[in-house]
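Folds vary. Our protein:
___
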Amino acid sequence: MVVPQLKFIRALWGAEAQFSADINVLCAEIHRLGYTGIEATLSDIHRISANDHNAFSQALKTHQLELVGLVQTNYPSYKDGVWQDLSIDEHITNLETHLREFIPYKPIHINIQGGQDSWSVEENEEFIEKALHVQAKYPEVTSSHETHRTRVLYNPFITAHLIKRFPNLRITADYSHFVLVCERLLKHSTDDERFRLFASRVDHLHARVGTAEHPQIHDPQEAEEECKQMQIWWEMIWEAQKDRPWITIVPEYGPAPYAITTDIDVWTLTNQEMERQKKNYEQWSKNIQ
């Protein structure tokens, strides 16, 4: 059996400070390390290219990198130090604007951090219904909603409800948020049922290991139980995606305060986690032959 190509995507989050703010230097190193592409917001693109669309596109082409776009529908989440409590329609307007502006960059996928966690179930349903309508206007690129704190899909229970409610809802899986929000590793048999449901809808994976008390680990060897459980969930996703030509994975580890201290070398941790997942994917591939 031929398994899908596993495309490793490097999030630009923190990468400039960790390595280089020069777009060509950074892209060259990301390619050298073995990544297939980068994940970036429009703000990331404008900043690192000094608002030069052609310079960004040329850098990707020169260094053989693809793009996954990242949309945050209430970006910035905080304005003048205050969290932005936006209406559903304001979120939807922002979503459409970002999707439209991403198209010229020819992304292979767009990841959406959508909505906000303060809404009722009915408001969540209204947002997803309207968001799916907007997404359908851009059939040239696939897009999925990330399971993320502060967003609509901030916990596994509302996520399961919305997936059942909307057959066309596709998700980006970042399960570290679920573990942190629920403050437990989610190993009950009912949790397993939900994660199998999620796997059937995943289009993009953020592979970050977190714990019940911290959004991310700093050493896989010190979080064996969490790494083992996350790997089970990620392999559920790979199993659901095994008939695709390629699948994407972002070994996403952020700077402090996501990192427990500023002493952690997040650049190295991220790259080591990519290598760990390469080995895990190779072993999984052999096991399903």
